[in-house]
Specification:
266 residues; 10 strands; Kinase-like_dom_sf; three-stranded antiparallel sheet; Phosphotransferase; Phosphorylase Kinase, domain 1; 9 helices
Length: 266
């Protein structure tokens, strides 16, 4: 196996779940894990996410993804096994056959993307997620009153992007529930707006797709305004911290275009 893949002892650890492994195809995206790959094996195939079993946010994201899976299976592949020892933690999912969504203007995937976000917003908030309040945008809000506009009891994916929406022949899946939270239901749709602008839509065009989402129609426009401004501040801050990450600058530009469109301070 490639030297970029986990060492031999890792595959021995997985063997009770996979049997002999015949091929490992790393995902093109999924940098938060030590392994994110399609694993073809005797008992599979499986989509496997794994990392070193060390305290911290990366491990916590895998634990959270395992805990939320029963609640999101209507729109996400099922978790088939969860393995853990002193050195490693790994999740094995059913494989979602398909391709990443195309968010570009005129894409035939956009109705399915909107439908998937509507399906996400219709999910019941599982009890485990009540202790996962969304707070990542809070420090970019102007004050506590604005941050309070992001509160709610919606189950949020929070990483809506083309790689995490898989278009299959008969269905569409939202994958990589690495950091689900509880918050205002419009937040996932707002994340889609930013991604659509980054993919080439005008802000008005992106919002026309958002308007097809129930959570958007139910949202307070003032909350959307506050979120648009906070999102720009967030991406601007990250782009300045990591100037070599050109994608952050692209996202900051998209967020700025949206904030300007909504007439909110940047």
């Amino acid at each position: 196996m490639s030297s970029s893949l986990p060492p031999e002892e890792f595959w021995g650890f997985l063997r009770p779940y996979t049997g002999p492994v015949t091929d490992v195809e790393p995902a093109s995206r999924g940098f938060s894990s030590d392994l994110t790959a399609l694993v073809r094996c005797e008992k599979g195939p499986f989509f496997v996410k794994a990392m070193r079993n060390r305290p911290g946010g990366r491990r916590d994201s895998l634990v959270r993804e395992a805990l939320v899976n029963p609640a999101v299976m209507p729109v996400s592949p099922a978790l088939l096994w969860h393995a853990e020892n002193e050195d490693w933690i790994a999740l094995g999912f059913e494989v979602a056959e398909g391709r990443r969504a195309d968010f570009g203007p005129g894409s035939p995937d956009l109705p399915a993307v909107v439908d998937t976000l509507n399906r996400i917003s219709s999910l019941d908030l599982p009890e485990v997620a009540r202790d996962w309040p969304e707070a990542r945008w809070d420090r970019f809000a102007l004050d506590k009153a604005e941050a309070d506009l992001f509160r709610g009891d919606g189950l949020l994916h929070t990483d809506i992007n083309p790689s995490n929406l898989i278009i299959g022949q008969d269905d569409t899946w939202a994958v990589d529930w690495a950091w689900p939270t509880r918050g205002a239901a419009f937040i996932d749709v707002a994340c889609l707006v930013i991604q659509l602008i980054a993919a080439g839509h005008t802000a008005q065009g992106a919002e026309s797709w958002a308007a097809r989402c129930q959570a958007w129609g139910n949202a307070d426009p003032a909350a959307i305004d506050a979120f648009a401004a906070a999102t720009f501040r967030m991406y601007r801050s990250r782009a300045r911290r990591f100037p070599d990450a050109s994608w952050l600058e692209d996202m900051a530009g998209a967020a700025r275009a949206w904030a300007v469109h909504r007439g909110v301070g940047t």
